[in-house]
Specification:
alpha+beta; seven-stranded antiparallel beta sheet; five-stranded antiparallel beta sheet; 17 helices; disordered N terminus
Length: 475
């Protein structure tokens, strides 16, 4: 499905002319792409839900080049879409019309790792998995781990405030980003690239860019906290019959595992079925309604294994879980995580996927999946739920043979209305992008949105920076 957008805005961006391309070529040389076949991948999102009409892709190699590009675009009122790994799920990194795509993929240098303070400084185009390997080789772990880590870039992660499975242990990027460098829409380079853990001088401007989805400027460098690599990692996969048991397990894990608890992830039986069907992964504990991955990370192997063993004995004796298995060596740990991390790929192999990323109160967490499953009935092939129990983030997926307006109308705005009714958030970690802009008032007050508009206008008075995203069009 390719979504066609009708949009009204107070600013009408200019079309790119040959004179503009001549200027761009003087800045980036051969790193300007105009061939339709080569531009095509930049115009389509990962799920193939959104398609733009850009005719120009620019691939700068430095902050100075980004600045020169934006300076010209501001002068000529040319709209720009920053793009990292293009792994977003809400249309935030693809053009809507013929905006210029500015790809950060060549800005991929690791600048420094300060081992004493635990701070990694790098350019925005660094792939998350590359950074993870670099940090691990030096005894550190990143605070962020995502299924798309092999493609997503750290600048895009910061721009969407991506979460992932380590948020329970290390917190969000708002807390782990010490500094950043960003280029504003008029080409001004904003240097907030501090590596200090304490700096209480004035407004913390970097926070405005984290989660702003490239609508205020382009992040070009990031200073990120990295944490000591755990010496002992243990993983348990357990099965529960009811979701109430999943919640009881989570409460017990927080109480009994406390300082070594690093992840609590769940996925339902439908998710497991698809992982087995399409990826051929073995399920070591079949015939459960819900599966939970519990991970501990610490510095003392014997201590951590004993804590996890006592925890499992307790929840088994109480009847909280029906079955379980433990992995302590790296290969078995990886095989358990492959079940959970394979859900997204398995869903895509099953058919067309409608994906929703919401935050819900834990006592309502799985209710939405059940209601959507009943509501869609035979119109959907599968309805599944998985997510991060530790931060209340549910990934709701509805799979169909093909896109249909009937199914779309069953899902939206029902899911967003339901989420607002229980005081959840319509976007937990994917952002609003293009998909959810008109629903922002489901999660934010009118006063808050009004203030966001004022901030947007302050940074981007011409409206050229990733237009049509995050904020709805003015009434």
């Amino acid at each position: 499905m390719i979504l066609h957008v009708m949009w009204h805005t107070t600013h009408t961006p200019s079309q790119v002319t040959q004179l503009d391309r001549d200027v761009f070529q003087s800045i980036v040389g051969s790193r300007m792409i105009t061939s339709p076949s080569e531009v095509e991948p930049y115009n389509v999102d990962w799920l193939r839900n959104y398609r733009g009409q850009s005719k120009t892709v620019l691939k700068p190699r430095s902050t100075e080049e980004v600045s020169a590009i934006l300076k010209h675009c501001s002068k000529q009122r040319i709209a720009v879409v920053p793009q990292g790994g293009n792994t977003g799920l809400v249309g935030g990194s693809t053009p809507v019309f013929d905006e210029v795509v500015l790809s950060l993929s060549l800005m991929n240098s690791i600048i420094a790792l300060h081992e004493t303070s635990g701070v990694l400084v790098c350019e925005a185009g660094c792939v998350l998995e590359t950074l993870s390997h670099y940090a691990a080789e030096r005894g550190f772990v990143l605070p962020l781990d995502l299924g798309a880590k092999g493609s997503c870039q750290i600048g895009g992660n910061a721009s969407t405030n991506a979460g992932g499975i380590r948020l329970l242990r290390y917190g969000s990027l708002h807390g782990n980003t010490l500094g950043l460098e960003a280029v504003l829409p008029d080409g001004t380079v904003l240097d907030c690239l501090s590596t200090l853990k304490k700096d209480n001088t004035g407004y913390d401007l970097k926070q405005l860019f984290i989660g702003a989805e490239g609508t205020l400027g382009i992040i070009t460098k990031v200073a990120l906290l990295v944490h000591p690599k755990p010496q002992s990692v243990n993983v348990a996969l357990v099965g529960c019959e009811t979701f109430d048991q999943v919640l009881k397990l989570y409460n017990s894990a927080r109480s009994m595992l406390s300082e070594v608890l690093s992840a609590v992830e769940f996925f339902d039986a439908n998710s497991m079925e698809l992982v087995q069907k399409h990826l051929r992964h073995r399920n070591p504990i079949p015939n459960s309604n819900f599966y939970v991955v519990v991970e501990t990370s610490g510095s003392n192997t014997q201590h951590d294994e004993e804590k996890l063993s006592r925890f499992l004995d307790c929840i088994l004796s109480e009847g909280t879980v029906s079955n379980g298995t433990v992995a302590t060596d790296s290969s078995k740990v990886s095989s358990i995580w492959a079940l959970r991390e394979g859900v997204t790929e398995a869903l895509l192999r099953e058919g067309v996927v409608y994906k929703y990323d919401v935050t819900l109160p834990l006592n309502k967490f799985y209710c939405l999946v059940e209601e959507v499953r009943e509501r869609c009935g035979q119109v959907a092939r599968k309805t599944t739920g998985h997510g991060h129990i530790g931060d209340g983030n549910l990934h709701l997926n509805v799979v169909a043979q093909a896109h249909s307006q009937e199914l779309q109308d069953l899902l939206e705005p029902f899911i967003f209305d339901w989420t607002a009714k229980v005081k959840g958030s319509i976007s937990a970690e994917h952002g609003l992008g293009l998909q959810k802009t008109k629903y922002i008032l489901h999660s934010k007050s009118a006063e808050a949105v009004h203030m966001m508009r004022k901030i947007k206008h302050l940074f981007d008075p011409q409206g050229i920076m990733n237009p049509y995203k995050t904020l709805p069009p003015p009434v």
